[in-house]
UniProtKB/TrEMBL annotation:
Family affiliation: Belongs to the sigma-70 factor family. ECF subfamily.
Residues in RNA polymerase sigma factor 70 region 4 type domain copies: 104-152
RNA polymerase sigma-70 region domain: residues covered: 13-78
Keywords, alphabetical: DNA-binding, Sigma factor, Transcription, Transcription regulation
Name of the molecule in the record: SigE family RNA polymerase sigma factor
InterPro entries: RNA_pol_sigma-70-like, RNA_pol_sigma-70_dom, RNA_pol_sigma70_r2, RNA_pol_sigma70_r4_t2, RNA_pol_sigma_r2, RNA_pol_sigma_r3/r4-like, WH-like_DNA-bd_sf
UniProt keyword annotation of DNA-binding present: yes
GO MF, one annotated term: sigma factor activity
CDD domains per the UniProt record, alphabetical: Sigma70_r4 (cd06171)
Gene3D superfamilies assigned to the protein according to its UniProt record, in alphabetical order: 1.10.1740.10, Winged helix-like DNA-binding domain superfamily/Winged helix DNA-binding domain
Length: 172
C-alpha cells in the first residue's frame, strides 16, 4: 500500500473507531468480543482499502463489514463457547432510565443474532429498511419480516417488563 493510501486508511479508522466499537458492542453485548469483531473488520478494510476508498458511502461499506463479521462469528462453532455459567454483572448508576435501558438490553440479548442485528440497525442506528437490506445483503422484505419477528421476540422477552413503556414506546 502506498504511504498516502495508508495514511488515509489510518485517518479514517482513527476517526471511526469509537463508532465501530459502539456498533459491534450493540450487536454482541460483549466489549472484548466487540473489539475482536472490529479488529477483524478493520483488517479486512485494510486489505481492500484501495477498493473501499472509492465507494460512494464508505461508512455504510465499513458498517456492512462489521455486521457481516459479527454474523459470521455466530456461524462458527467456537463462538458458542461460554467461559462462565453466569453473566457478568454490569455496574451502572441507579435511575429509572438506566433501569429501563438494562431491562431492554437484557431482553435484546435473548433475541436471535440475525433478528437482533436488524433491530439494532433499524432502531438504534435509525437506518431505513433499504440501507439495512444493503448492509445485510438481503431483500427489503426480509428486513421487514425480520423486524416484525424481532420485535415480537423482544416483546415476549420483555414480558411483564413491557409495562414500563407507555403506548408511544417511551419509558413511563
Amino acid at each position: 500500500m502506498r504511504a498516502q493510501d495508508e495514511q488515509q486508511y489510518i485517518d479514517y479508522v482513527t476517526a471511526r473507531l469509537p463508532e465501530l466499537r459502539r456498533l459491534a458492542g450493540s450487536l454482541c453485548k460483549d466489549r472484548h468480543r466487540a473489539d475482536d469483531i472490529v479488529q477483524t473488520a478493520i483488517t479486512k478494510l485494510y486489505v481492500h482499502w484501495r477498493k473501499a476508498k472509492s465507494v460512494d458511502h464508505l461508512d455504510a461499506y465499513v458498517r456492512t463489514i462489521v455486521v457481516r463479521t459479527f454474523l459470521n462469528e455466530y456461524r462458527r462453532p467456537w463462538s458458542r463457547v461460554k467461559l462462565t455459567d453466569e453473566p457478568i454483572e454490569r455496574a451502572a448508576p441507579s435511575g429509572r432510565e438506566v433501569e429501563t435501558r438494562l431491562v431492554v438490553a437484557n431482553a435484546l440479548d435473548r433475541v436471535p443474532p440475525k433478528l437482533r442485528t436488524v433491530l439494532v440497525l433499524r432502531f438504534l442506528y435509525d437506518l431505513p429498511v433499504r440501507e439495512v437490506a444493503e448492509t445485510l445483503g438481503c431483500p427489503e422484505n426480509t428486513v421487514k419480516s425480520h423486524t416484525a419477528r424481532g420485535l415480537a421476540v423482544l416483546r415476549r422477552q420483555l414480558g411483564p417488563n413491557l409495562a414500563i413503556f407507555d403506548r408511544k414506546g417511551q419509558p413511563a
